[in-house]
Amino acid sequence: MDRATVASPRGGDRSGVPGRLVASLAITQTVGYGVLYYAFSALLGPMSRELGISTATAAGALTTAVLVTGLMSVPVGRWLDARGGHALMTTGALVGAAAVVAWSQVQTVAQLYVVFAVIGAASAMVLYEPAFAVVVAVTAPASRARALLGITLVAGFASSIFIPLTGYLLEATTWRRTLLILAAGYAVLAIPLHALALRRTGPRHRVHPASSRPRVAVLRDTGFWLLAAGFVLHSAALATIAVHLVLYLISLGHPPAVAATLAGLLGLLSVTGRIITSLSSRWLPMATIAAIVLVVQGAAISLLPFTGSHLAGAIVCLVLFGLGFGVASIATPAILLDRYGSHGYATTAGTLARPVIIAKACAPLGSALLAGAAGYRPVILAVAAACITAGLLIAATAAPKHP
Question: What is the pTM of this model?
Fold first, then answer.
């Protein structure tokens, strides 16, 4: 593992976690995911009705945003390796806030999709991937796991905070004014925090933007493709469950309120899973931990079609599945750093993120088509198979740490 001296955001050398930076990113990630991603689910109904479009058409805008985020992940990674995250993330926060304001003014489907393409671009500049790259650049190797855990623990509550908050705002005003309030809140928090806390957070190993050597070396590694396949399958599985779980639980006979409550367990349990994963890394390689968690997830969700009609059975399945819901956010940077080191980390992470994010965008639609043709049971069993296969693929990448 890299033992180079770590530059503090405030200048000088630092051997631990830059606390102000971690606290700032924890806040901006929570608000960023809440406003740029999770608020959409609460706004979908009233927005669709006023625009006179189907919910499927409106939901396609969010898919567009996620696809743009995935497509931008590699160029964003190269920028981060070459110049750091200060200008990029500050600009991304400005763009994100402006895009949410523009969202509040859309009148047509075309305008909606253009706005969400911009939101997708902003998301690529401000969410987990660039935030993690900044942390890797300025945090001592021994303290990176703690820094990343601190950020993801707080950000793990984004959905629990912002979906209800958006609902409360909708009860008090229109969906357009709700968006203006959310945009103002995001701008007030994210722009100054990125501008101030990310100063002097440039990369320790500068990579020229035209240089592709780190990425070429990674692409020649069979283990990278195993990791990519594993995380693509897992991302597709999680996206499918996130979108379709409530409908499936209702189809099993649970009342809508109970189904929504059970689905809400996943977000809360993901925080617990991240803590367990981080603590376990003291004794096992992260690739091994991730593999075990994913296989357990697959086994648990595979039982849902057979035990999920009973409340206790559904709870057990979803608790075990939910513990792995946020593991990828902790495991991915740790595995990449163990395998490839910190040189060119952002480009490597962006290269992996592109297919993973695209799978996240496309899987719910494919699952909907399968459910329409064959029902939800094959969808859930496919999710189980994807998780177990992902675990086995990631387990196959276990290798000595980067010297």
Answer: 0.79
